[in-house]
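Form P-L/3: holo structure prediction, ligand guanosine-5'-diphosphate.
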Amino acid sequence: MVLADLGKRLNNALGQLSKASVVDDEVIEALVKELVSALLEADVNVKLVASLRTKIRARVKKSLEEAETSGQGLRESNKKQIVQKAVFDELVAMVDPGTEPYKPVKGKSNVLMAVGIQGAGKTTTCTKLAVHYQRKGFRTCLVCADTFRAGAFDQLKQNATKAKIPFYGSYTETDPVAIASMGVEKFRKERFDVIIVDTSGRHKQESELFEEMVNIGNAVKPDMTIMVLDASIGQAAEGQSRAFKESSNFGAIIVTKLDGHAKGGGAISAVAATKTPIIFLGTGEHLNDLERFAPQPFISKLLGMGDMQGLFEHMQDVAMANPDKQKAMAKKLEEGKFALRDWREQLSTLMNMGSLSKIMSSIPGLSGAMEGVSDEDAGSKLKRMIFIMDSMDNTELDSDGLIFMKMDSEGLPTGLNKRAFRVARGSGTSVKEVEEMLTQARAMSGFAKMAGGMANASKEKDWTK
Ligand code: GDP
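OUTPUT (holo model):
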């Protein structure tokens, strides 16, 4: 998970709030102070942090006053929720540029052009992007228009070959504009859906680099120009992206190397301040280390609350490879059904997807626990969750999990029943693990119902987008 340290500190600060017996000004101020110092340490701009502090204070005050005057007595637990929500919403607002990026559409050739300084991770990111779109069912290809750096074409060729993505480039042609045009034209004729153009990141003079980008842009007419930016530059990201924006009007940003840098928070918030949408985060050197970025799921994951949307997308990617499974899943969602059996199937699919610790940090309730955990440990945790479900009978597996709960006279769950203890014994796990697994399955089921509801409401049957 990216930005682990910042996430931990923000989490701790909110944890202190949960522990407090009364929520008074002092407790709120201590929380704000801790948030501020965590954000500054992650290199978030001082002004941005100061404004966040003012906004959190104001929002908390307003929300508490509104709740007081609504006539209902305000309990401490409600106050905590109000404060937590205010913090959550303000953090989301801080990384939200308020604009939507271009989304490639099927049935036409979408040209995406990557720009950025050499070493930012452009070539690596282009291949990651190609893999991403290919998984989504787009016919995708790569064009290498970096003629300045010796070896750039070889690097792209190697990455593309590994990922089985068609590519275009030249060892002899020295004009990047000519290569870009020829490559894009060839792939357009061949009716590729997504054509990704990698450009050079360095020149003898900066002005030449910008001129070249403009010329390539004029030649290939990209539907979206993406700036690739290294997170380690922290809040300097704002200045760098503004400089690029003056010459190549890019419409989206990808921030790379968030796996290794504490300054990532600074880069992300600085970019958001330029009102350009971040579309992905690079979180490692491997082709799968690309995470979709959206403000709310990002903050949710950062605070250890999981990212169900992201998890669903992972599952959809896998389902794409198996159309029958995908159809069955889409039908279940439409009907708003998601039983433990479905959760088991999804988990066993996840086992084959690589980078388990990252994927599992998307599961609500597991986010925090997956921090810094190796793929091996994540795999064994996942296996235990599957063992639990393998100890269930058919009725239990086809249920939504409530079958394991004791109910009070009003039909509300008050704890686990004998079934849960039997399953824990049978699977060699603890009752606590069974309870956790049921909570996660319930969260997924709730999300599935919501997704199904949304799909029905919009009559949008294809939930893989
Ligand atoms: P370019 O000059 O902009 O095309 O950059 P490259 O794609 O050649 O990447 C430069 C270096 O950064 C390479 O060693 C990559 O493996 C590495 N890199 C790229 N993206 C990431 C990332 O998200 N995380 C990490 N840790 N390394 C990355």
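COMMENT: The longest strand covers residues 224-230.
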